[in-house]
Amino acid sequence: MEIEPDNVIVLLSSLLALILFIISLSAYLRERRRKMLMVTAAFFAYFLMGFLDSTESFFPSMGDSFEIWSSILNFAVLLLFFFAMLTKE
């Protein structure tokens, strides 16, 4: 099985989202602001979305279910960032 450059980039962006999730989680635990909690959840959802995208090449038989969950997570990420921008705190 050959690793495609596209999958490497998706995996790296997923790892970056995981790092940003950890940083934002520590900021939320320190400040307890609802806006930061939404941003933290968005980074975690983005991490999951990237993880599902990168594992799709390793488990091709589950391609449709990965694709559906990835689309749902993509929508959730956008909603969480949108609500975080609207939240007044």
Compact overview of the structure:
With 89 residues, the chain is an all-alpha fold. The protein has helices at 5-31, 34-55, 63-86.
Topology diagram in text:
Layout: H1 5-31, H2 34-55, H3 63-86
Write a structural description.
The protein is mainly α. The chain is built from three helices and no strands. The longest helix has 27 residues, at 5-31. The radius of gyration is 15 Å and the shape is elongated.
Question: What labels would you give this structure?
Answer:
single chain; 89 residues; mainly alpha; 3 helices; elongated
- This entry's quaternary arrangement is single chain
The low-pLDDT segments are none
The proportion of residues forming helix, as a percent range, comes to over 70%
Rg over alpha carbons: 15 Å
Number of strands: 0
Q: What is the SS-derived class?
A: mainly alpha
Biggest sheet, open or closed, and with what strands and sense? none
Residue share in β-strands:
under 5%
Terminal Cα separation, in Å? 49 Å
Order of helices and strands: HHH
